[in-house]
Task: structure prediction
Amino acid sequence: MSLLILIQLAVHLEDDLHDRELAARIKKGDREAFRLFFERYQASLLSFLVSKGTARDDAEDLLQTAFLIIWEKREEIRPDRSLRSFLYTIAYNRMLNLFRDRKDQDPDFAYKLSASGDNPEEAAENRQAIEALHKALEVMPEKRRRVFELCYLQGLSYKEAAQAMDVAQKTVENHMALALKELRVALKQFMPSD
Result:
């Protein structure tokens, strides 16, 4: 194992331990711990929300709401669970509600496919692929869809997703494998042929 990998593991473990300590302190009403938690995650959460197609002003409102909910529900915090995962789940769910409630919003918010140009055929194919993706996600069992959203769209690790959903990590791994298999089948016509 290289020195760089060992350093990254050590930093990740230290961050995880620090987050657990912050969670325990926040649960007790420690405002300084909450401030530190906010400073640690506000920029990355804002970037995440904007990357999903949320207007910056809306993303800032969602961010504030998510942190406010963490503070208001602090007594329910479980320090052995990822508080970061809880924060992102709150923000993501609020974002979905925002898009659902706004009819003028681009419906492809969370599943944008990048177009390499202004080719109308390519844009039409991208829209069709997005529609196929939405349909595939709609028919998935709820837990499987949730795993996909947490791991793929929110970028949580399998361990963090398992903690957020209060299930075993193996359950998350199985659901993710099945979700990807189902999506490969549903999107087969849009994948480049070998």
